[in-house]
Amino acid sequence: MPYVVALSGGIASGKSTIANLFAKLGVPIIDADIIARQVVQVGSDAFNQIVKHFSQEILLANGELDRSQLREIIFNNDHERLWLNHLLHPIIQQETQKQIAMQNTTYVIWVVPLLIENNLHTLADRVLIIDVPESLQLARLVKRDNISESLAKKMILSQVSLKKRLSYADDIIVNDDNLARLTAQVNLLHQQYLDNFNCKI
């Protein structure tokens, strides 16, 4: 069983970019967002429960979930967001642990946005948190998802604060949109993880 480094940060903090840098070094990436999309594919139990709860109006013409509409609903209604989280969280976790157990490497990067919110940090051997200025996070989110600044702020505020997230960190990586600096930080952490985890085996 590999050691698990949980990589987390606020929405649009650069988790995918950092995970890709680790992947280039040969580290397996277990991404909760990707798993979340897999478990709500058309016909799955989770998909059927979501459609039953929100009605057929939550579907696109091709029968798949209308993610943009669903996002609008859950980030404007805490009750609906919690309902969806409670539905998907156990399913995602089961698949996550299955994928981690299949890896035969020193360590894996487990990308999990709601690490602190869902109290998942205890399932990791180490917690790596992304430190990013909120102004940069907001600008990225508006551009990435083509949404209003108002919705973007609601999405950011729905998560724990950066200060609280950083309080759980074993390691911190600063993402200020400088790829060279980001790559250097990832390379340094990768070597530290190999040294530290190999010593424990």
TrEMBL record:
The keyword Transferase applies. Pathway: Cofactor biosynthesis; coenzyme A biosynthesis; CoA from (R)-pantothenate: step 5/5. It catalyses: 3'-dephospho-CoA + ATP = ADP + CoA + H(+). One of its GO terms (biological process) is coenzyme A biosynthetic process. It is found in: Cytoplasm. HAMAP family: Dephospho_CoA_kinase. Belongs to the CoaE family. This is Dephospho-CoA kinase. It comes from Gilliamella bombicola. The lineage of its organism: Bacteria, Pseudomonadati, Pseudomonadota, Gammaproteobacteria, Orbales.
